[in-house]
Amino acid sequence: MLTPNWANMLPGMAHAEPDGFMKPAEFLSQLEAFAAPSRSNIKTKTHVEAVTQKGGLFEVRCDRGVLSAETVVLATGAAAQPVVPKLAHQIPDDIVQITPDRYRSPLDVPDGDVLVVGASATGVQLARELRLAGWGVTLAVGSHVRLPRRYRGRDIEYWLHVTGVLDQNTEEIYDLARAMKLPSPQLMGGQSDVDLNALQAIGVKLVGRLAAVRDGMALFSGGLAHLATAADLKMHRLFDLIDAWIADTGATAAHPDRPAPTQLPADPVLSLPLVGGNIKSVIWATGFAPDFSILDMPVFDRRGRLMHDGGVCAVPGLYVLGLPFLRRRRSHHISGAAADARDLASLLECHLKARSAA
Fold first, then answer.
1. Quick one: how far is CA 262 from the chain centroid?
2. How many Cα atoms sit within 13 Å of 167 on the Cβ side?
3. Mean pLDDT across the chain, nearest whole number?
């Protein structure tokens, strides 16, 4: 898991190693243990095909038949499908293209060098794993959030928690639209850092953002230094906030141990051949997006995005959970599920009472 165990506990649950990092199978066991006492009618291995409205009720059509409901909560999350840029169609046919949802191990990647596109959490983790497995790796770096795994003796998630950063609600965030576009931080579970310095130390080559593919060549932006400087600046602003909180509260903490500035090649590469070159595969670590294509009702804006206000959708009785900045900065974290669920449960109850009274 990307976050330590204490941040992944469901209400009423604890972990023997709160500062450790559980494996996915362990988290699955926790989910099952949490669900069991409620005796909820959980239908696993069920594919929902469409959600419509009929006669004042929602109809949920799935491969097990049709379910009727007065309310529906969409909890499919923000990472239902990988985002791949349109220029992927310009990649030569003999180059293998892989999205993170289909990647399982370096054995999925053919012999030859790998171009990993995207330097957020997924991209830096894959670049590290492939390089340590012996592949030649080039990482195309766009906008990114640099964070160390630990700062002043504690996991960085601890500081984000105690300083209240993760509990900021959407009304407190100055530029919400900009905050929602921030990529996931360069982190992995454990103690190791996976920032650009750490990757270069093991032999990963850095290039700028993949800007175009033309005549069998991958062309990269020349703004890598600017992006790295901006990421370093934002990281130090967070450190300043943490240091100020420690000073104000008198909390016990180790001495400041800020990472060194990002070091970049003096003469960055601006193009690489995809025809007749060493690169044999491309991994698109370019983010994920929600998928609400099952909805057959007027709930989308002109850009195809689900319209909602803090999880309350434009159609009465329809709600959504698990999206970034739904109600708080931590809304799409496991630790943010409980508070958002409580808020929406109250609204859902009011909706059902109103229907009953009517």
1. 23
2. 9
3. 94
